[in-house]
Automatic annotation (TrEMBL):
Binding of [4Fe-4S] cluster 2, residues: 69, 72, 75, 79
Ranges where the 4Fe-4S ferredoxin-type domain occurs: 28-57, 58-89, 132-161
Name of the gene this protein is made from: napF
Lineage per the UniProt record: Bacteria, Pseudomonadati, Pseudomonadota, Gammaproteobacteria, Vibrionales
Purpose of the protein: Could be involved in the maturation of NapA, the catalytic subunit of the periplasmic nitrate reductase, before its export into the periplasm.
Gene Ontology molecular function terms on file: 4 iron, 4 sulfur cluster binding; metal ion binding
Family annotation (CDD domains): NapF_like
The protein, known as: Ferredoxin-type protein NapF
Binding positions ([4Fe-4S] cluster 1): 37, 40, 43, 47
GO CC, one annotated term: cytoplasm
Subunit structure: Interacts with the cytoplasmic NapA precursor.
InterPro entries xref list: 4Fe4S_Fe-S-bd, 4Fe4S_Fe_S_CS, Fe-S_Ferredoxin, NapF
Main subcellular location: cytoplasm
Keywords from the named record: 4Fe-4S, Cytoplasm, Iron, Iron-sulfur, Metal-binding, Repeat
């Protein structure tokens, strides 16, 4: 069988990423990602914050435990495939979500997520008989993930909205 006749969508059937509620890469065309990504690793090499890591089947994926996305667009510029939307579009429709594992919800004062949130999307509301509770102003959240790695209980995730 000639290499040019390979059907990549069939070849990648068993390595295809599970469509997830978590973002894979900023500006990526999700519907074409598993078919067109060659897993060359150029986006991984170019990421200045090293948050793009190899994942299932070698596909690149953002790992917010490593840090935050600065929306620099270097991953898209390095990619040899037509996988990315223009930088003028929104990077992704993803926002931070705080689970019940949050220390504040256990009545322990912690504001590490709010301290790391550059757009100040995480605010703390005073509560009677409890510590201030975190609240995410969703319109202000960029989904950068700066709050994820600093959370001591891993209570914050970035999910598609």
């Amino acid at each position: 069988m000639a290499h040019s006749s390979l059907n990549l969508s069939r070849r990648q059937l068993f390595t295809r990423r599970n469509t997830s509620e978590h973002p894979s890469l900023p500006w990526v065309k999700e519907s074409q990602f598993s078919d067109l990504c060659t897993q060359c690793g150029e986006c991984i090499k170019q990421c200045p914050t090293k948050i793009i890591q190899p994942s299932d089947g070698g596909f690149p994926r953002v790992d917010f435990q490593q840090g935050e996305c600065t929306f620099c667009y270097q991953c898209a510029e390095a990619c040899p495939e037509p996988l990315f939307h223009p930088k003028t579009e929104t990077a992704w429709q993803a926002k931070a979500h705080i689970s019940d594992a949050c220390l504040a919800k256990q009545n322990v004062d912690c504001r590490s997520c709010g301290d790391s949130c550059e757009p100040f999307a995480i605010k703390f509301k005073l509560a009677i008989g409890a510590v201030a509770q975190p609240h995410i102003e969703l319109p202000d959240c960029t989904g950068c993930g700066a709050c994820v790695s600093v959370c001591p209980t891993s209570a914050i995730t970035i999910k598609h909205t």
